[in-house]
From TrEMBL:
Keywords: 2Fe-2S, 4Fe-4S, Iron, Iron-sulfur, Membrane, Metal-binding, NAD, Repeat, Translocase. Pfam families: Fe_hyd_lg_C, Fe_hyd_SSU, Fer2_4, Fer4_Nqo3, NADH-G_4Fe-4S_3. Its main location: membrane. It is found in: Membrane. Residues 78-117 form the 4Fe-4S His(Cys)3-ligated-type domain. GO terms for biological process: ATP synthesis coupled electron transport. The lineage of its organism: Bacteria, Pseudomonadati, Bacteroidota, Bacteroidia, Marinilabiliales. It comes from Labilibaculum manganireducens. This is Ferredoxin. GO terms for cellular component: membrane. Its cofactor is [4Fe-4S] cluster; [2Fe-2S] cluster.
Amino acid sequence: MVNLTINGIAVSVEENKTILEAAKHLHIKIPTLCYHKDLCVAGNCRVCVVEQVGNHKLVASCATPVAEGMEINTNTLKVRNCRKHIIELLLTEHREECTKCYRNGHCELQALSAEYQITNQDFIDLVPDKNYTVDRLSPAIEKDDSKCIRCQRCVRTCAEIQSVGAIAVAHKGSEMKISTFFDRSLDEVVCTNCGQCIVHCPTGALTEKSYVEKVWDALADPDTHVIVQTAPAVRVGLGEELGLGLGTRVTGKMVSALKRLGFDSVLDTNFTADLTIMEEGTELLTRLKRALVDDDPDVALPMATSCSPGWVKYIEHKYPEYLPNLSTCKSPQQMFGALAKTYYAKNVNVAPENIVSVSIMPCTAKKFEANRPEMKDSGYKDVDYVLTTRELAVMIKQAGIEFEKLNDEIFDSIMGVGSGAGAIFGATGGVMEAALRTAYEIVTGREVPFDNLEIIPVRGLEGVKEATVKIEGTVEAWNFLEGAELKCAITNGLENAHKLLEAIKRGDKFYHFIEIMACPGGCLGGGGQPFPVDNEIRLQRMNALYEEDRNLPIRKSHENPEIVQIYKEFLDEPLSHKSHKLLHTSYVK
Ligand code: HC1
C-alpha cells in the first residue's frame, strides 16, 4: 500500500493507483474531462490538475501515480485559477450555443463552466475564424467539430473498446482535430454506428440523428396508424433519464407514457426476441445436424448471433470471411418491422401503407439497420423511425408527462407479449441463455439443468465468457446429439469480438455457437442509453433485466402464447418459407 495525504487527510491506496483515484477514497471530487473510467488515461485536458505541497508543481491527477509520502492539495488558489483558465481556453474553441445544443443540461463542459463560474471571456474567441465541419450524412450519428474539445475520448473508445478506429486524431497543434479516413463522412467510413463515441463524448460533438420531429408528425397525422415497439434494455434505462434511480425497471410506466403520447398500439420487441429464439435455435440445430450427421463440409460453425447491427457492420468490414457464420435471422427489431406491415396489419385490418412503425431502442446502430436496403421484405420500409431511449425521454418531457407518477399499464396485443427469455436479450449473454433454455428443452424434452433456469456462466460483464452444455437424454428426433457437448462463447464490445474471432481463426478455440453484442454490457450499455455510463451503471441495469425475467410469468420463448399463435396462424413453423421471406436475410461485404 502507498501512504499519502490529500488536503492534509491521510490515505492509503494500492500501488499504481492515481492521485485521482486516491482522492475518490476520501470523497474528494476532482473535475475531469478527458478521463473516463472505461478508457486508458490520456491526461491531455489537464482540468484535473492538483498541487504538490513543497515544490508547488501542478500535476494532472488522472495521469500521476501515487507515491509514498506524497502531499497533495486539490483546492488551492493556484489550482482553482489554473482549472478556470483551462476551461476558459477550451471554451474559446467550442461553439457556445448551449441553449440550442442537444447536450444542453447533459454537457460536462457546460457543467464545469457553471461550477467554476465562467462568466466572462478573457481569451480571444477562436470559433468565428475556424472552418469547422458538421457531418450529418449518417442515418445514425452526427459529428459537429465546433463542439469538440479534442479530449479524444471518442478516439480511445472507437479504438480501445470497439477495435474499429473509424475516428482518429488528424493534424497537429492548433490544427489538430478528430477526423475520419480522408475526413469523409461517418457514413462513408468503417463506423459501425454503435454510438459508443456518443456516450463517451463529454460535449455535443457527437450525437445521434434525431427523428423525434418525424415521430411527432406521424402521431399528429389522422391518416396514419402509428405503432411502437420497445427494446428489452429501454425499460431499465429510461427511468434514469427521467429522474428515477439507476436500473429502475419502468416497463409499466413506459407503456403508459407511450399510450399517452398517442401511439395507436404499444408493442414489445421482446415478442420478436422470442421469435428470434425459435428461428435461430432451429437454425443452430439444423447446422449441427448438417455438420454432425451429414458431414457437410460447407456448414459454417460456430454460428454467430446477428441481432446486434453494430456487430453485423463490424463483421462486414473487418471479417467478411465469417459472414456465412452469421445466423440468417434478422434482428428482433427488423423481424418486428416485417411482421408489423404483414401479420399485424392483417390482424388489425389496417392497410400496411398507412402503418408507421416506430421503435425505441437503446442503440444508435438500429437507426442504420432500419435504413438498410435489405429491410423492406414487407414490401415497405419495415421500421420507419428508430428513437433512442434518450429521444423517448425527450418526447415524454415535451408532452408534460409526469413519468414517476404514472400507473403501470400493459402492452397491447398482438405482438405485445414477451417472455423473460426475451427480456434478458438486453444483457450480454442473454441471447445465449434464452437460446439454451429453448434449444435444450427441444432436444432433451427437459429444462436446462440450471437452478431456476438461470445459466450463470453466461452472465456478467467479463469481455469473453465461455460455457459448455452437455446434452444428455435426447428425444428421438435429436438422438445424434446424445452426449454432445455444446460449446458456446459470449462477448460484448467489439474489441472482445475481435479477440474471440482471432482465437477462432488461429484454431486456438472451437465453438458451436457464439453470441456477440457490439456494446459493453450488451444493449443495456448501448449508444442510445442515458449518460453517463460505466460498469457500475451497466451492472445495475443488468441486474434489473434479470429481475424482470424472474418476475415474468413466462420465462421461455417457446412457451410465449403469442409465439405459438403466430406459428399456428401465419408462419407455420420455424424456417418455413414465410419465415425465410420475412424474418431472415443475408449480408454481403
Ligand atoms: Fe437489443 Fe435486440 S437485445 S439488439 O441489444 O436482439 O438495441 O435492448 O432491441 O433487435 O430484442 C438493442 C436491446 C434489441 C433487437 C432485441
